[in-house]
Specification:
The protein is of the alpha/beta class. The protein has a single domain, classed as NAD(P)-binding Rossmann-like Domain (Rossmann fold, 3-Layer(aba) Sandwich). Helix content is 37%, strand content 17%. Bound molecules: nicotinamide-adenine-dinucleotide and uridine-5'-diphosphate.
């Protein structure tokens, strides 16, 4: 039985990856410190004989007993609100955490895939974004803590590949959504759906002309799975090229949820990218992958999931208590 370590296992993407690798017959070791994740995302896995969970902060030395064939490094705050609240933890998990996991991969002779992001392109001046674009990132802006941690993560991963001959994979993930996102993490889909469920107005930042391209989680997981098993060490974009303005998207959400609330406008956060759309030619050619879940279907499944959450989850204060997960 192949053995895989998945960091960020209690998060949105990590928990779906655990499900996928268990269903493929792997022994999965999930690791998380719950700073932005939720126990309920992995509760269903705790009784499985081929799943083991280790509560651990990966910015501290990481040790795992027994052999490992693969590592997926997905631990990191991922929503702008989260990483603005915990900027230093964000920098540490992308840098020190990645270094620890690369060291573990080298020790275990395991292949490692790291979760990078479209944020490495910053507020892009090239559209759509292909892997050969170097990006337009404000290193000292509020988003710099995430963007630069991810850029460092890519650099150190390539260094381990070139210097140590480590088998590495880099996925550049574009906005992905689905069940198990944290309702109050501030990202636009849980934000709009939560507002609709609570009967609040939908908040558009800026004038809503900025664009995003949303990928359903099952498509994302399939792309990551194929990339891990490929022999390609350079970054690959995985996302859905179907681009939409945030204003049009808010209108779709109003229709989907049936909310009678209005749209209200708030200030656009600093360095919020004005456009984002993946060029997925490389993934198509290399992995024979492309997304096939429509926004209509994916949003319906996601909204149905949010409707099942308790009143407490719906109204719980906007942010998690991060402090209890941070060592002094
Ligand atoms: P998430 O916040 O739901 O999950 C991240 C998980 O990592 C959480 O469970 C959190 O508790 C855990 N974590 C954070 N710091 C940790 C640490 N020091 N030690 C151990 N665990 C830690 O976010 P997500 O959307 O699932 O994102 C997962 C990964 O994918 C991240 O690396 C993120 O940068 C990347 N990504 C996601 C998207 C997206 O649209 N969802 C887009 C681009 C990149
Ligand atoms: N956004 C918004 N209202 C919200 C939350 C987000 O208009 O309540 C906008 C945000 O400014 C950005 C887009 O939606 O332009 C996507 O934001 P998200 O936080 O989901 O992710 P990003 O792609 O910016 O990392």
């Amino acid at each position: 039985m192949k053995r895989i370590l998945i960091t960020g296992a209690a998060g949105f993407l990590g928990s779906h990856l655990c499900d996928r690798f268990i269903s493929e017959g792997y022994f999965v070791i999930g690791m998380d410190n719950f700073i932005t994740g939720e126990e309920r995302n992995i509760e269903h896995l705790l009784g499985y004989p081929n799943f083991k969970f280790i509560e651990h902060d990966v910015t501290e030395f990481v040790s795992v007993e027994g052999p490992l064939d693969y590592i997926l490094h997905f631990a990191s705050p991922a929503s702008p609100i989260d990483y603005l609240k915990i900027p230093i933890q964000t920098l540490k998990v992308g840098s020190l955490g990645t270094h620890n996991l690369l060291g573990l991969a080298k020790d275990k002779k395991a292949r490692i895939l790291i979760a990078s992001t479209s944020e490495v392109y910053g507020d892009p001046l090239v559209h759509p974004q292909s892997e050969d674009y170097y990006g337009n990132v404000n290193t000292i802006g509020p988003r710099g803590v995430y963007d630069e941690a991810k850029r460092f993560q890519e650099a150190i991963t390539m260094a381990y590949h070139r210097f140590h001959g480590l088998e590495t994979r880099i996925v550049r993930i574009f906005n992905t959504y689905g069940p198990r996102m944290r309702l109050n993490d501030g990202r636009v889909i849980p934000a709009f759906m939560g507002q609709a469920l609570r009967g609040e107005d939908l908040t558009i930042f800026g004038d809503g002309s900025q664009t995003r391209s949303f990928c359903y989680v099952d498509d994302q997981v399939e792309g990551i799975y194929r990339l891990l098993l490929s022999d390609y060490a350079y970054p690959v974009n995985i996302g859905n090229p179907n681009e939409i303005t945030i204003k049009e998207f808010a209108e779709e959400i109003i229709k989907l949820t049936g909310t009678t609330q209005r749209i209200i406008y708030k200030e656009l956060p600093k360095d919020d990218p004005l456009q984002r759309q993946p060029d997925i030619s490389l993934a198509k050619k290399l992995l024979h992958w492309e997304p096939n879940v429509t926004r209509e279907t994916g949003m319906q499944i996601t909204f149905d999931y949010f409707k099942t959450l308790s009143k407490e989850a719906l109204y719980k204060s906007e942010h998690k208590d991060f402090k209890k997960h941070i060592k002094k």
